[in-house]
Amino acid sequence: MPEWSIFAVVGVAIVGVVLLIVRFHVNPVIALAIGAAAIGLGGGLGATGTVETMATGFGETMAEAGLLIAWGVLIGSMLNRLGAVSRLVETLLRIFGPKGVPYAIAASFATYLQTIFVDVMIVIAAPLARRIAPRLGKVGVGIMSTVFAVSLETGIALMVPGIGAVMIAAALGIPIGQMMLWGFVVVVPTVLITTFIMTIVMKAGFWNPEKDELAMIDDETVVEEVAHEHARSVAGATRAVPVARGRDTVDYAADTTTGIDVDELDPELADRSRTMPLLAQFGPLIFSLLLIATGAILDILEVEIPAIQFLGAPEIALLLGVIGTALICRWALPKDELERTLVHGFKDAGQIFALTGVGGALAGVIAATPLGDLLTGYFGASAFAPILLVWVIAAILHVAVGSVTLSAMTAAGILAPVAVQLGINPVLIGLAAGAGALFLVHVTSNTFWLLQSFLGQSVRGALKSVTVGVSVSSVVALCCVLVLSVFL
């Protein structure tokens, strides 16, 4: 088969997937499956080979990520139900003060709070952000809006247990522990540097409170909106925050399906959960992440300690986190609330499972074609070119589709064969894909509209804090990945 035909088949299939999602509003799971089948048939795998390769890719990906997604969703659902996030933000404000709290929030939201869905984080923490903003000066709303956007989007794409990072790791066969370790190395400097840059830019006149801010939504309105949305979700209706006029077909499904019960914001229940120290609420999750990190470090050092290797396995470590958090919920919440929370969490994981598996099927089909050999010949032995290319592909896909997870997974799958054949650590390809998928978050993203409304920004203001801010983090993350490539 001529070289150009392989590029044409893959290119047309990817463009077709984008058009199906954007123009014809086809569910991403179905669109990805159609794209995988088209590449297999057009790439010479044949009918039987295409089906077998898709099934293998789906199964291998789910074997890698299925339990991790389930445990992460359950932990996030329970922490959300405990009201732990709002308490954390209040604590950070007391400890770090107004000037330091943006950096503390950025690092927290981008790392160990990635089990919490993005829209839930915004709804819970937005009232606290609005109270913090005036203490940061006239541009406080711009700074806090940027912090929220950068930390939440960067974390979900690059930091385990963020859904995007887990899906990328599964698609490329990256050990979860290594993805978490190196993701942490990239994410923390990325969010801190971006927060520093955007704070300077905002104070230099980039943010205009008169044009970039709207009247703040009061907390009672927030509660009413959340309660209304939960009622619609229980009735089987499609969830969409009334002011969220944008659409992120994948991140919306992954990040906005966690319902919030009306009584979740009941002061009486909140008081009950507050009787437990905040560290105790987050303790099981932190312990799980430390076990995973320890296991990854021992693996890199090639040190064998059977007990740590067992407990540090991500599936076991996060299971311990689920059990620990469930015990806390059993003590802090009414008797039936734990079961309701777990059932809701399992329901939320359904589309994430399907999307992850079909994304793995697409990556498997692409890897089975000669595309990897051809790209290897074009890029030579340099690690920089594939890293830059996967960033560009992910950025283009994100601009078109508006989905961080879908664009990152697709770009990583296309370049995965190059990483293997050139001897490049797949972690670099995965991190570059996640970084590129952050570029130009705009009106097709539901997160854009959530941040615009709940943090009191005009559309013009959201374009500055969300679109520009997250794009800056995308470039900073790429630079961090390129630096990391020198050592990996």
Order of helices and strands: HHHHHHHHHHHHHHHHHHHHHH
Q: Based on CA inertia axes, which overall geometry fits? A: globular
Rg over C-alpha atoms, rounded to the nearest angstrom? 22 Å
Percent of sequence in beta strands: under 5%
Low-confidence stretches: 217-265
How many strands appear in the DSSP assignment? Answer: 0
Q: Give the averaged pLDDT, no decimals.
A: 77
Proportion of helical residues: over 70%
Helix-strand category: mainly alpha
The total count of helices amounts to: 22
Let me know the largest β-sheet. Answer: none
Q: What is the count of structural domains?
A: 1
The N- to C-terminal Cα distance equals 35 Å
Describe the protein in words.
The chain has 488 residues and is an all-alpha fold. It has one domain (3-485). Helix content is 78%, strand content 0%. Helix 2 runs antiparallel to helix 3, helix 7 packs across helix 8 (176-206) and helix 18 (384-401) runs antiparallel to helix 19. The longest helix has 37 residues, at 46-82.
Topology, element by element:
Layout: H1 3-22, H2 28-42, H3 46-82, H4 84-110, H5 118-132, H6 140-158, H7 163-172, H8 176-206, H9 209-212, H10 219-234, H11 251-255, H12 267-274, H13 278-301, H14 306-311, H15 314-332, H16 337-368, H17 371-379, H18 384-401, H19 404-422, H20 426-436, H21 446-454, H22 459-485
Protein name: GntP family permease
Keywords: Membrane, Transmembrane, Transmembrane helix
